[in-house]
Amino acid sequence: MVIELDFASDTPIYVQLRNQIVKGIGKGELKAGEKLPTVRQLASDAGVNTMTVNKTYQILKAEGFIKTDRRLGAFVAENINMDIEFREKLESELELLSAEASITGMDKEEFLKMCENIYSKMNPCTM
């Protein structure tokens, strides 16, 4: 998986890293149980501070997307489940995206088609 960061973006680097790893899992580019690069390796590859990668991994661990072992490193979680907290977060983000789409003139059918198209690009083996 190739990590591409936009250092000029208002989105913090650790959030960009988190989002790209989640997309990689969703698309099947990162498989359940797959070992992730060490904090140092990913920091070196991405050209960022190790603390940035460490923060990213801590967030991914808290969200249940990865598991960590002090001796073995970080791995994509085997079982990623939707809990009530995730469901509420997803609903809130979809509400915001829906509002933005509506405000900018996108109709419901176009928005749903876009959602369906993007969702169809995810690897069904990870769902």
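Above is the first protein from milestone M3; the second protein from the same milestone is given next.
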Amino acid sequence: MTRILFITSNRLGDAVLSTGLLGHLTETCPGARLTIACGPLPAPLFRSVPGLERLIPMPKRSYARHWLRLWLDCVTTRWDLVVDLRNSAVGRLVPARRRVFHAKAARPMHKVEENAAVLGLSPPPAPRLWIDAAARAEADALIPAGTGPFLAIGPTANWLGKEWPADRFARLASRLTGPDGPLAGARVAVLAAGPERERARPLLDALGPRAIDLTGRTDPMAAAACLERAALYVGNDSGLMHIAAAAGVPTVGLFGPGYPAIYGPWGPHGRAVTGSVPQAELLARVAADPDARGLMDGIGEDGVAKAALSLLPNRIGRVTSLRQG
């Protein structure tokens, strides 16, 4: 029996972007037994991976004891393949017939391409999600019955400097779901992690009864099950943005001081929107003041709406048929 150890990120977005490589392994190594090590936050996304034998969440511990714990968990198995995207000592110190490691690319490339290079894959396999029945049942409970295709918005991020102003999200939602919008009459789902919930409150208040409040209510797997029903996702550069894109949702990601060439939403149905202020200037402002504000102010509503409109044709009918099927 083939056994594979797959060590991926503790960060949600990076973990999602590694799922294309993982999916390639499940397809090309049928019958293999997989052990996946990752951070606690993205762990639910891996619980239904085909061939999963063990899922090892790795909460950080002082003095890097989480790595020692992982080594103790894995050293007694002889692995046929170790794929270590953390480039860790564990990947080198467990017994293995073959081992491959993430290496920083010699030239700038998207993270999906960088991950694929670990196994020399070209073209790179796209990120994917294995959404299970439990997550879909949770989505059924969270999204009101009878809700048609809806707009999903992720108004927060893991850093305030990456958040587009809430009032602009509100105006964009009105523009897309108003009487003359492409999603006329649609409801608006607002998603945010638990610690970011209060930062999403101004948008929820602005939307009023049109809002579906999904802030702080789902783990990543349930969030994916909710998002796959959306007609469109618009949000800041965040893990939720990558979940939406991997779930097959047309995705608009907003980037200020971030790196859209490396972390933009992957695939033909993803768009990265940047602002009028050059990235170099934004990064210089951050270097001078880590708490600098207004870093996303250069992103105009017109540019975001244009990106959204380019993704919407034919999506509504497909989502409606999925909900009726």
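Note on the second protein: Residues 3-119 form a domain with the Rossmann fold fold (CATH 3.40.50.2000).
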